[in-house]
Amino acid sequence: MNPTSPTTSPLSPAFAGHGHVTFLGAGPGDPGLLTLRAVEALAGADVLIAEPEVLDVVRGHARAGVSTPELAVVDEASTAAGVPVLRDAANLVMEAARGGRRVVRAVTGDPGLDGNAGAEMLACAAEGIPFEVVPGVATAVGVPAYAGVPLRDAQGTDVRFVDARTADERCWNEVGASDGTLVVSTTLDSVAAAGELVAAGRKPDTPLTVTIAGTTTRQRTWNATLGTIAQVFKQGKVLPSPEGHRPVIAVVGERSAPAQRDQLSWFESKPLFGWRVLVPRTKEQAASLSDQLRSYGAVPHEVPTIAVEPPRTPQQMERAVKGLVTGRYEWIAFTSVNAVKAVREKFEEYGLDARAFAGIKVAAVGEQTAAALVDFGVKPDLVPSGEQSAAGLLEDWPPYDPVFDPIDRVFLPRADIATETLVAGLIELGWEVDDVTAYRTVRASPPPADTREAIKGGGFDAVLFTSSSTVRNLVGIAGKPHNVTVIACIGPATAKTAEEHGLRVDVLSPEPSVHKLAEALADFGTRRRESALEAGDPVTRPSERRPGARRRRTT
How confident is the prediction for the chain on average, in pLDDT? Predict the structure, then answer.
């Protein structure tokens, strides 16, 4: 007998024709903390009802077309005036469930610690609507872990959790008399009121850590004591911000000592932690690069600098695709993801699919192009073993052999920008080349005004230039990056173009690879951080050096 899950999936036939609600914990903020069960539930949802602060965390895992009704915002002024304001989430959940929909109700942290979620569960139970609970990482546990603050030592230190927003005097007296670790969910308005714990018996020199925006790339943690935290915040001008919806987590006790956090702060010490990095590519092109930047703690921002359009005269492409089907070519070489897309679209126009490549050898210039082919249903026969470029492709390309190669012709679908290096190299190897314009590249439309202002005003910490054209096009559509922005270039030619546009090149990739470029930027960030620490200076982002930049960080 196969083991079964203790929970019932909302996709289960047991709920066919009936509404079902999944109460889902979205964790403290990092999308990577969603559980496998949470991702599964989100993929099957008809309706997604999420707290505003976690909507972006969960929405990416929901299927296309999922309904995401907005929650009503509680009007604090009306509440203060005694006007009752109903929380709309419960009404939305019940209405959708009564209509036979599969509902996912996502909350911050864990549903078991959310009082409103508990009330909504009771409402479901009262009406006989089936529901399940998908636990999430509790904010009070996840945030200290990301701050490098262990809550319990080998001796089994007592750990108490307190919500300062609801704690009364009796609660403070009780935890104040304890010598265990105390985890306090609070706000920036009240975190400095540590005097309550001191008055209840805690010593003023008790170590304290305070973390804001925990588990996100805006996270920041302060080390202080109960007696000094108010002064630390005052000196640092740490103030609440309009984004302060996430709770602040304070950890009181010996385990939060600064010396230990210096060794255990794994998240905030990432090489590009909190850096806003401009990637002049579309989201599709930049997917793996952006994931790599996130692993270094950065916040990638994709801005396309080129747009792809069909060739002005499609006849050449049409003849080449027909020749592909009729056996005119021995090889087809793809030098970009866009080339794969152009051929695929032409295939679909003719009612063809990947089977038309049968008997034809396929080459891809690099891993991303190869991945696009695999997605099309084609496994490339040749991908460069070394440098992922036209030169690298030529190094591995076999010379034409009339004995083993019945056909001597290569189909090269490309952009309207010439590819003389590859064409000349293939001809030198004895091949005939049909060099066909499959698509045109044109300058993209300017990005939104706030992005342009951030580029010119120093709002980005770094920009990655992956070609000379990205330099020219970005400057053309958005302006020149501010001089505090770190400029990283993929190779000497790109660096030369950047310098010609008046930019200072700080990072040069050791190889013409976007992933090596990101790695080089991370190395730069590591060296910069180490230099600041050795000099006893605060670790800041490049954008914080620009005139007028705010040096405080809030939630």
Answer: 86
Per residue in 336-367, pLDDT (tens digit) is 888 999 999 999 999 999 999 999 999 999 88
359: buried, middle or exposed (CB in 10 Å: 19+, 13-18, 0-12)? exposed
Q: In this structure, what token pair is assigned to residue 227?
A: 């007696």
Q: What is the pLDDT of residues 91-103, one digit of tens each?
A: 889 999 999 999 9
Which sequence spans correspond to the domains of the chain?
18-137, 141-264, 276-305+446-545, 309-443
CATH number of 276-305+446-545: 3.40.50.10090
- Closest by Cα among 136, 250, 152 to 202: 250
Question: Minimal CA–CA distance to 29: which of 162, 211, 265?
Answer: 211
Q: Which pLDDT belongs to residue 256?
A: 61
pTM (two decimals): 0.76
The secondary structure of 124-186 as a DSSP string is: HHHHT--EEEE----HHHHHHHHTT--S--TT---EEEEETTT--HHHHHHHHT--SEEEEEE
Give, in order, the Cα–Cα distances in Å from 464 to each of 387, 461, 509, 522.
19, 10, 10, 12
For the cut 50, the answer to whether the pLDDT of residue 14 exceeds it is: no
3-state class of 511 per DSSP?
Answer: coil
Q: Are residues 367 and 383 in contact, defined by beta-carbon separation less than 8 angstroms?
A: yes
Which residues neighbour 103 within 8 Å (Cβ) at sequence distance 6 or greater? 19, 20, 21, 22, 45, 46, 47, 48, 49, 93, 96, 97
Instruction: For the domain covering 18-137, report its CATH number.
Output: 3.40.1010.10
Mean local confidence (pLDDT), 179-185? 89
pLDDT band at residue 71 using 50, 70 and 90 as cut-offs: low
Strand duo 361-364 + 159-163: pairing = unpaired
CA gap 447, 305 in Å, rounded = 9
